[in-house]
């Protein structure tokens, strides 16, 4: 099975999860990235069940709208049952590194509102210890050098992502060389650095459900 076939399989499983569990007409949060894109294409087939969607990026909003799915402003809704998104890494405690697509801040905001976070990924994303994938940190542009110096003090090697401006008008630093043994602690510590908008550790609010595509099929793991 290719990686794309696994993404397709997990996207179908997530569509079925939503069709079974999202109350008719309820609001669905939708993530960003290639796996999320497969998921968006799948839920086009059940759009009459979905009252509206909240997108975690402009790209996702465009894709949802392109399929005729209603895209709502997060400020106009009171509750969201389910949020479905991919991840760059996920550990055994359901903590994740996200932000490979640069949408980490909006993803974290939408996830904070959702009742259930469903992470969809292929088996290559499952790790023992987070940090092999460089940790994205969204930074206010004028603070980039300051934040970089602070991240070096934490043992990381930050590198500015070339050509990347987030949907919020900010920059991304990708932090290499971290071995993240305390994801929730590091998430808080990095967020304390002045000039950081947020970082790609999703540990304080990790996934509730993991749909993991493997060569033997899609496995479901619960927090
Ligand atoms: C985007 C993300 C994505 O969920 C993450 O990068 C995984 O992407 P893909 O499904 O393309 O592997 O956090 O900001």
Please tell me about this protein's structure.
The chain has 223 residues and is an alpha/beta fold. It is built from six helices and 13 strands. Strands 2-1-3-6-12-13 form a six-stranded mixed sheet, sandwiched between helices. Strands 8-9-7-10 form a four-stranded antiparallel sheet. Strands 4-5-11 form a three-stranded antiparallel sheet, with helices on one face. It starts with a helix and ends with a strand. The structure holds ribulose-5-phosphate (5RP). Residues 31-35, 85-88, 98-104, 107 line the site of ribulose-5-phosphate.
Keywords, separated by commas or semicolons:
single chain, 223 residues, alpha/beta, six-stranded mixed β-sheet, four-stranded antiparallel β-sheet, 6 helices, 30% helix, globular, binds ribulose-5-phosphate
- Which ions, cofactors or small ligands are bound in this entry? ribulose-5-phosphate
- Oligomeric status: single chain
In whole angstroms, how far apart are the ends? Answer: 27 Å
Order of H and E elements: HEHEHEEEHEEHEEHEEEE
Strand content: 25-35%
